[in-house]
From TrEMBL:
This is LicD/FKTN/FKRP nucleotidyltransferase domain-containing protein. It is found in: Membrane. Keywords: Membrane, Signal, Transmembrane, Transmembrane helix. Transmembrane segments: none annotated. PANTHER family: FUKUTIN-RELATED (PTHR15407), RIBITOL-5-PHOSPHATE TRANSFERASE FKTN (PTHR15407:SF28).
Length: 281
C-alpha cells in the first residue's frame, strides 16, 4: 500500500517533470488560457510575433520587411480614411525619429489610440477585414482588425491582455499592436494617460499631434516625441549607430544590415528549422 502510493507519487512527479521539460510553453499557456485573448504562434522571440490563427511558417528577413511595410501603410491610410485618430509609438516611433521608416530589426509595429477611440473600434470595427492595394497597384493585401474584449478594462489586470487590438496580415499572421491610452486616475492624476503596460504620458506631451510621414504615408506623431523617446529608450537609442547587426549610414539616412548579420541569421534559421523538425527533449 505504502509502496504503491510512493510509486504513484513518483510517476506523477516524473510526469510533471516531463511536461516541464517538453516546453515551458505548455505550462505557461495552460495558465494563460483562462483570460488571454490574443494568442501567438509560440513564446519564442520569433514565433511570438505571429498571430496563431494566421501563422503558416516563419518568414525570411525580406518577407517580414515587405509584410510590415505594407501593413503599416495600409493601417495608417485606412484609419485616416475612416477619420480615426491613431499615432505611432515605441520602436515604431524610434524608427520614425531616425529616418521616417521602420527599424529593420524590429518584428513588431506599435500604434496607439485614445481609450475613446478604442471603444469605437470595439463597437464598430471589431472583426472587420480591410483590403489594401499599394500605390503602384502591384501589391494587394487584406488585414483583419481584432479588438480585445478586455479593452474596456483600462487597468493592467492580470497582465494577459495589455494589447487592446491587433491589425493582422491574414496571409501570415504578423501584426501591429494597437494599445489605448486612458486617463485612468482623473481624480488624483488628471492629464496623465496610461496604457495597460504602465507607459504614461501627459496630455501636453501627446497633443497637439504633429503631422508627418512614416514609410511614405501621412502619420501622426505625439507632440513631445523627443521626451517620450528618451524616457522610454534613453539617449543612447538616439545616438548609437550600430545596433542589432545594423549600421546607420548617415549619407543614405538608412540602417544597413551588416554582412556578418546576414550570415548569422541564416545560421539561426537553419538551427531553428532543425530544432522544430526534431524537438530537443
Ligand atoms: C470581437 O469579436 C470577437 C468575435 O466575435 C469577440 O470574441 C470579441 O469579444 C469582440 N471584441 C469586442 C471588443 O467586443
Ligand atoms: C553609405 O552608403 C554608401 C552607398 O552604399 C557608401 O558609399 C558609404 O560608404 C556608406 N557610408 C557608411 C558610413 O557606411
Amino acid at each position: 500500500m505504502r509502496l504503491a502510493s510512493v510509486g504513484i507519487k513518483l510517476a506523477m512527479a516524473l510526469a510533471v517533470l516531463a511536461a516541464g521539460r517538453l516546453g515551458e510553453a505548455s505550462s505557461l499557456e495552460a495558465r494563460d488560457d483562462d483570460t488571454k485573448y490574443f494568442f501567438e504562434a509560440g513564446d519564442g522571440d520569433i514565433l511570438n510575433h505571429y498571430d496563431r490563427r494566421f501563422f503558416k511558417n516563419q518568414l525570411s528577413y525580406d518577407e517580414r520587411a515587405d509584410t510590415l511595410l505594407h501593413m503599416v501603410r495600409a493601417y495608417l491610410i485606412t484609419f485616416r480614411k475612416m477619420g480615426i485618430e491613431t499615432w505611432i509609438a515605441h520602436g515604431t516611433l524610434l524608427g520614425w525619429w531616425w529616418n521616417g521608416q521602420m527599424l529593420p530589426w524590429d518584428w513588431d509595429l506599435d500604434t496607439q489610440v485614445s481609450g475613446a477611440t478604442l471603444d469605437y473600434l470595439g463597437d464598430n470595427l471589431n472583426y472587420t477585414t480591410h483590403n489594401y492595394v499599394s500605390e503602384d497597384k502591384k501589391v494587394q493585401r487584406q488585414y483583419f482588425l481584432d479588438v480585445n474584449p478586455w479593452a474596456i478594462e483600462r487597468t493592467r489586470g492580470d497582465g494577459n491582455n495589455v494589447i487592446d487590438a491587433r491589425w493582422i496580415d491574414v496571409r501570415n499572421g504578423l501584426y501591429i499592436d494597437i494599445t489605448g491610452l486612458s486617463e485612468t486616475h482623473p481624480d488624483i492624476a488628471p492629464g496623465i494617460w496610461s496604457c495597460k503596460n504602465y507607459h504614461r504620458y501627459k496630455t501636453t506631451d501627446l497633443y497637439p499631434m504633429r503631422e508627418s510621414i512614416f514609410e511614405g504615408v501621412p502619420a501622426l506623431i505625439p507632440y513631445n516625441y523627443d521626451k517620450i523617446l528618451v524616457e522610454e529608450y534613453q539617449h543612447k537609442a538616439m545616438s548609437l549607430t550600430h545596433y542589432e547587426g545594423h549600421t546607420w549610414n548617415a549619407t543614405l539616412k538608412h540602417w544597413a544590415k551588416d554582412p556578418e548579420e546576414e550570415k548569422k541569421e541564416n545560421n539561426k534559421r537553419n538551427r531553428l528549422g532543425r530544432r522544430q523538425a526534431m524537438p530537443d527533449f
